[in-house]
Write a structure and sequence with these properties.
alpha+beta; Outer membrane efflux proteins (OEP); four-stranded antiparallel β-sheet; two-stranded parallel sheet; 11% strand; elongated; transmembrane
């Protein structure tokens, strides 16, 4: 999923003809403006409702529920006809019917196994739902990150447009050379080109989100959502709970499976009825009763032992993945604190410095108190700070979401 989220960003649009890009952008803009913005919570709801993978798991639960009806497994009805001289020289007939039924706890064991398999499918769905929620959240904030870059681009365009006007005015009054005007025009054109590329990036982010929601409708996140992800730290680990539930349910399945193999070693009761002629005279009837005794029960015994070994394997896998999850959470926690401190700096100081630098530089340059090259230097410094703030927020969001939804191993 992560590969899908980030690899699409590497697409190069440089070779696409400009008219086609313009048409595509106008079409995307029209669709976007007509589409209502939805919250993250609503997006997750839609994803869980539409996602085909979850629907497949629902069908597995349904299948295992239907299979409960197979708990009672009698042998096929045996119907036999015999004709010939088996009583005398006369040609007689014999028809017999026989049915064997399982004894002991076989039916109960089979029913319990199917119930546990249905529960296992439900646990698997819970894991899939968890991973889907994580993927949707990452994609949602990836889109918001694109919006923040767009806003920064618009802010830069406004700054350099003002700079261009000042440069043209200074050139007309003879206060500066034409180099300032040319440089300002080039920068404005560069920003406009970047804006077009950012529109395409945003369209890609939107399609990534739509992929997880799996709908033909355009899913557009609410731009009023705070760019900073609202991380909620909890003492209870949802990931560990889901993982533990899954493996414990897997163990329950193997326990019941072992029980069915053991129950299969019990005899089966057979009841029958026959009707025949003797010396062509009819009709003589009778009943039969018998047992099927599994003298060679080693196969079922071996299968029961194999299921018990699977129980041990699942317990070992649970123990191993608990260790992996705890180490992963420690690593994610350290990275989260690192990104949080970095973001705190830009929120509390860096962004204010950038705005002060831009305001002071613009006033000084407009009043003629600052040279062109000094103005450009300070402006680039402030812009770089704003870009770093956007990147810091994006990195914080990624680390916070990863910490909120650590990866669960279930194999």
């Amino acid at each position: 999923m992560k590969k899908l989220l980030y690899n699409l960003r590497t697409i190069n649009f440089a070779n696409i003809a400009h008219p086609l890009r313009l048409i595509a952008f106008l079409l995307a803009s029209t669709i976007t403006s007509a589409q209502a913005k939805i919250s993250l919570e609503r997006t997750i709801e839609l994803a869980k409702s539409n996602n085909i993978d979850l629907k497949i798991v629902d069908k597995e639960i349904e299948k295992q529920t239907v299979l409960k009806k197979t708990a009672f497994q009698p042998d096929p009805l045996q119907v036999q006809y015999q004709g010939g001289q088996f009583n005398s020289v006369d040609f007689d007939h014999n028809v017999s019917v026989q049915q064997f039924f399982p004894l002991g706890n076989v039916t109960k064991a089979n029913r319990q196994l199917q119930e546990e398999l249905a529960k296992l499918a439900e646990k698997r769905k819970a894991l899939s739902s968890y991973e889907l929620e994580k993927a949707v959240t990452l994609a949602y904030y990836q889109y918001l990150y694109g919006i923040s870059i767009q806003k920064l681009n618009s802010e830069l365009n406004e700054i350099y447009t003002k700079f261009l006007k000042n440069a043209e005015l200074r050139f007309k009054t003879g206060e500066s050379g034409n180099i300032e005007v040319i440089s300002a025009k080039a920068k404005v054109k560069e920003i406009e080109t970047q804006k077009e590329q950012l529109n395409y990036d945003l369209a890609i982010y939107q399609k990534q989100l739509q992929f997880f929601v799996q709908t033909t409708e355009n899913i557009i996140p609410d731009e009023t959502t705070s760019l900073k992800y609202a991380f909620i730290e909890s003492q209870d680990s949802k990931a560990e709970s889901l993982m533990t539930d899954f493996y414990q349910q897997q163990i329950s399945v193997y326990q019941k499976e072992s029980g069915t193999h053991k129950a299969a070693r019990t005899p089966k009761l057979g009841l029958g009825y026959f009707a025949q002629t003797i010396n062509t005279e009819s009709l003589f009837q009778g009943f039969t009763a018998g047992l099927q005794i599994p003298l060679f029960g080693g196969v079922n015994t071996a299968k029961a032992k194999a299921s018990e070994i699977s129980i041990s394997q699942s317990q070992l896998a649970l123990d191993k993945n608990k260790i992996i999850l705890n180490l992963q959470k420690e690593e994610l926690q350290n990275n989260f604190q690192k990104q949080q401190k970095n973001l705190d700096y830009y929120q509390n100081e860096g962004l204010q410095y950038a705005n002060q630098i831009i305001d002071t530089a613009q006033k000084s340059y407009a009043n003629g108190d600052m040279s062109y090259w000094s103005y450009i230097s300070f402006l680039n410094q402030a812009i770089d700070i704003k870009k770093q703030f956007a990147e810091a927020t994006h990195s914080y969001n990624q680390s916070a979401i990863e910490l909120q939804f650590p990866t669960i191993k279930n194999n």
